[in-house]
Specification:
By secondary structure, the chain is of the alpha/beta class. The protein is built from 13 helices and 16 strands.
Length: 504
């Protein structure tokens, strides 16, 4: 047996020992969970980005493991974050499956569970949300956001995430392990228009996806977005320095991710590759072999059971995701678990702007399955507008210069197909060859030669969804339409915005 194999076996045994003896406080890892708000996977250098600089996160990726096929389960803030916290799939979350809904108190969150295991927990910035909850603290934990800064651009939060993280560490007991949620509010909109000019960027730097026209408006919008992604990276870098300075880096498991893709048309809130394919980087010095990539398909619902297992606790029975400890401790790159060869995705009601005659805000229900080569999408209510109704300004898409440009296009304009691609109604079935068409441009679903493949994928998807108790697949999906929406509402008679509903 060569020395390399012996070394890897020793690392594996050490890791297993730590997991099995996690009840001993001094041996349990700290957990720092860093999540961006609306950052696409390819906005990070470790995933092949070409115009956004993320040196601190890339450094963690080089010394940790990069998950190539990580997905959020539902491409909008509050349902995606609920999947993280509960270890459940989006369609199992009841009211929390909707954006701006209510977080059911019956669901336990991993911070609550780790607190019972002796961990100090907290968050800064954006935790779970938007929405309402019954607990005294945010589902992500007690908030540490009182320390402020003067941000470099308008639109960037004045919360000093790193300093609040340090205040949290200073407050906790010296020997007590911690679990902290660093929730940046960037690169969520709005942006300071033209902020890219302040740092000497050039329009030619931006990489424009093929579902947008390549013009100065779109390029400038992408560069403003880039500035905010880089701010997130800077805050992560400062948090890493704090851990180093306090001698805690080697005892801390660090997770880097984003809740979904960038706040642009056809990305945020949409069931296409860039909307739900998210970055996931895990660093744990001395525990994870450096420079690895994992091709297993994983989901946000897998994170909570992973955190429970690495601290030596059993995942809560509610958690339907599976632990990623096997993927973390493996000495290999590539496919670790052959059974993780696909992932399920879905969405229900996100934002208002789609109504029936009685004024009920309607969902745009979608279920999808993604494997190594194909994405099959079932738009369950194709008669509805996917991004909200045009008369209500397509409200499931953030306001932006890019959105304004696209929605101003009219039939007969040579670029009108960009509007159709981003905002128009969609067919019931969509099928994309991700290997050849990663931007999901060419729908193959109407080609007869793919009929059998679609049937097979749909059967596989729905069989799993039924086993998971998905109300939509069981014919009870209208429940998602009728859950209360706690964001800004619309009067569908006048088209005017109304105040949010008060909760308690």
């Amino acid at each position: 047996m060569n020395k390399t194999i012996i070394y890897l076996l020793l690392i594996k045994c050490l890791f297993l020992s730590l997991v099995m003896n996690g009840q001993k406080g001094e041996e349990r890892p700290n957990i720092l969970f860093c999540i961006a708000d609306d950052a696409s996977m390819k906005s990070f250098g470790s995933y092949g980005d070409t115009f956004i600089n993320t040196p601190y996160i890339d450094s963690l990726a080089n010394e940790g493991v990069v998950f190539i096929n990580a997905y959020n389960g539902n491409p909008k803030c509050s349902p995606a974050r609920a999947c993280i916290l509960t270890g459940k799939y989006s369609w199992q979350l009841k009211e929390a499956a909707d954006h701006n809904g209510r977080f059911p108190s019956e669901f336990k969150t991993y911070p609550q569970l780790l607190e019972k295991e002796g961990y100090e927990v907290g968050f800064t910035g954006k935790g779970w949300g938007p929405g309402v909850y019954d607990t005294a603290d945010n589902p992500a934990g007690p908030e540490y956001s009182s320390i402020k800064i003067v941000p470099p651009y308008k639109g960037i939060s004045n919360i000093d995430y790193a300093s609040n993280f340090e205040a949290f560490i200073n407050k906790k007991g010296e020997k007590k392990p911690f679990c902290f949620w660093l929730g940046a509010k960037e690169p969520h909109r709005g942006y300071e228009l033209g902020s890219w000019k302040k740092v000497g960027r050039e329009l030619k730097e931006a990489a424009v996806p093929p579902f947008y026209p390549d013009n100065d408006i779109v390029r400038g919008d992408l560069l403003d977005y880039a500035n905010e992604v880089e701010w997130y990276d800077t805050q992560v870098g400062q948090a890493i320095k704090i851990l180093k300075d306090k001698g805690l880096l080697e005892s801390t498991l660090i997770v880097i991710t984003s809740d979904h893709g960038m706040p642009f048309p056809r990305v945020k809130g949409q069931i296409y590759e860039e909307g739900f394919h998210i970055p996931l980087i895990v660093y744990w010095k001395g525990r994870i072999l450096t420079g690895r990539t994992v091709n297993d398909f994983v989901s946000f619902s897998d994170l909570a059971p992973t955190f429970m297992e690495v601290v030596g606790a059993r995942p809560h029975p509610q958690m339907t995701g599976g632990s990623l400890v096997k993927q973390l401790l493996s000495p290999k790159s590539g496919q670790i678990d052959p059974s993780r060869d696909h992932v399920l995705l879905g969405k229900e009601r996100h934002d208002v702007g789609r109504s029936n005659q009685d004024g009920t805000d309607l969902a745009y229900p979608v279920r999808a399955i993604r494997n190594d080569s194909l994405l099959y999408v079932h738009n369950i209510k194709p008669e509805r507008w996917p991004v909200g109704n045009p008369e209500y300004e397509f409200l499931n898409c953030d306001a932006s210069p890019t959105k304004s440009y696209l929605t101003a296009l009219k039939p007969g304009n040579k670029e009108y197909f960009f509007f159709e691609m981003n905002f128009d109604k969609r067919p019931e079935h969509e099928l994309y060859n991700i290997q050849k068409d990663p931007h999901c441009i060419d729908n193959l679903a109407n080609l007869p030669k793919y009929a059998e493949q679609i049937k097979k994928l749909r059967t596989q998807m729905e069989t799993e969804l039924i086993a998971q108790g998905d109300p939509r697949t069981l014919g009870k999906g209208d429940v998602f339409d009728n859950y209360i929406y706690y964001g800004k509402r619309l009067d569908y008679n006048t088209g005017k915005h109304m105040p949010r509903l008060k909760y308690k």
